[in-house]
Specification:
Layout lengths: L5 H12 L10 H13 L3 H10 L5 H17 L3 H14 L4 H14 L2 H15 L10
Length: 137
């Protein structure tokens, strides 16, 4: 019988054994998934190392990488660095809800409440067109 989580488990085992042993032949999506798996496993340093080595093929790829790295640094309480990556993502796509919320969250952790409120307002506007429910108050 095939285990639904088999490929996920195998991916964690391979990355845990040697997170730097990933091939340049992997697609962007595979490399991004590797970074996500490591981040979800709490291996933030390894995840960032992999994500920073990715050469984005498209603008959307760079956006995804910046959002993921920003979220990792926010979890590590490195708010200024997280803000830098979230700001890059926001500058790439000012209509991206996750980027606006990321910038706002980083500003909150830094104590920049005025700037945070500004980006929460932006996220509210952007989120109006989102199919997912949001609660920003």
């Amino acid at each position: 019988m095939f285990n639904v989580f088999g490929s996920f488990t195998l991916c964690i085992l391979v990355l845990t054994a040697n997170p730097m042993a990933w091939s340049a032949d992997k697609t962007f999506e595979q490399k991004l998934r590797d970074g996500k798996v490591l981040a979800e496993a709490g291996r933030f340093k390894d995840a960032v190392a992999i994500l920073k080595r990715i050469e984005p093929e498209q603008r959307e790829d760079e956006l995804s990488v910046n959002l993921l790295i920003g979220s990792i640094y926010l979890k590590l309480d490195r708010s200024a660095t997280a803000l830098d990556f979230y700001q890059r993502a926001y500058d790439q796509d000012i209509d991206n809800f996750d980027a606006a919320i990321g910038v706002a969250s980083a500003h909150i952790q830094l104590g920049n409440f005025k700037e945070s409120k500004q980006f929460i307002g932006i996220a509210k506007t952007v989120g109006k067109n989102s199919p997912e429910p949001i609660l920003l108050e």
